[in-house]
Write a structure and sequence with these properties.
By secondary structure, the chain is mainly alpha-helical. The protein folds into 2 domains: 73 residues, no CATH class; 67 residues, GMP Synthetase, Chain A, domain 3. It is built from 5 helices and 3 strands; from the N terminus they run ααααββαβ. The protein has a 3-stranded mixed sheet with strand order 1-2-3, with helices on one face. The longest helix has 37 residues. The protein is elongated. The termini are far apart.
Length: 169
C-alpha cells in the first residue's frame, strides 16, 4: 500500500469514527471526537508550517509534485502557489478541444472561467465543462464554486432542397 493509499484509508476511517460518534445518543462524545480531530489537525499543521519555513519556497514547490504532500499543504494553507496559479496549472494539464481561460475569483469565492472553441457539439462542451470543474476543485478546494462561460451553440444547419417536381433550369 502506498503512502497516498494509506492516507486515504486513514481519512476514511476518521470519517467513519466521527460518524459513529455522531450517531450515538450522547452528543458530548461526538463533540469531543470532533475537537480532538481539530486539535490534531492544528498540531500537524504547525509542524508542517515549521518544516515549510525551514525548506523555503523552492523546495516546498518541489514537494508539491507529490499529490499527498500537496493536499496536506492545501489543508494547512501552506501551498506556495496562490489559488489562481494552481487553477491555471490545472487547466494547462487538461486536454480539451477548447482552451479554458481563467478569469478570476469573485467576492463569493467562485472561480470564473471561459471556454472558447470547444466544438459545436453540446455534449462535447458539457464534457469539457465537467473536466474543468473537476480540475479546479482538485487544485483549489477553497473555491466555493466554478462557473464556466461557454459560447452559444452554433445555429442549426437548415437543409434547403427543391420541392418535389421542380427542376433547376
Amino acid at each position: 500500500m502506498t503512502a497516498t493509499d494509506a492516507a486515504e484509508v486513514a481519512a476514511q476511517r476518521i470519517d467513519q469514527l466521527l460518524a459513529e460518534l455522531r450517531s450515538r445518543p450522547d452528543r458530548r462524545a461526538a463533540d469531543i471526537g470532533e475537537e480532538l480531530t481539530r486539535c490534531l489537525v492544528q498540531l500537524y499543521g504547525a509542524g508542517l508550517a515549521r518544516i515549510a519555513g525551514l525548506l523555503g519556497p523552492g523546495r516546498l514547490a518541489d514537494l508539491c509534485a507529490d499529490p499527498l504532500v500537496e493536499s496536506l499543504l492545501l489543508v494547512h494553507d501552506l501551498h506556495p502557489l496562490d489559488t489562481g496559479a494552481r487553477i491555471e496549472r490545472a487547466l494547462a494539464g487538461l486536454r480539451l478541444a477548447g482552451a479554458p481561460e481563467y478569469l478570476g475569483i469573485d467576492d463569493a469565492g467562485v472561480a470564473r472561467l471561459r471556454l472558447a472553441g470547444a466544438g459545436g457539439c453540446p455534449s462535447s462542451r458539457q464534457a469539457a465543462v465537467g473536466q474543468i470543474e473537476e480540475a479546479v476543485a482538485r487544485a483549489a478546494p477553497e473555491v466555493t464554486g466554478v462557473v464556466v462561460e461557454t459560447p452559444p451553440a452554433p445555429p442549426r444547419l437548415l437543409q434547403v432542397s427543391l420541392r418535389p417536381g421542380l427542376t433547376v433550369p
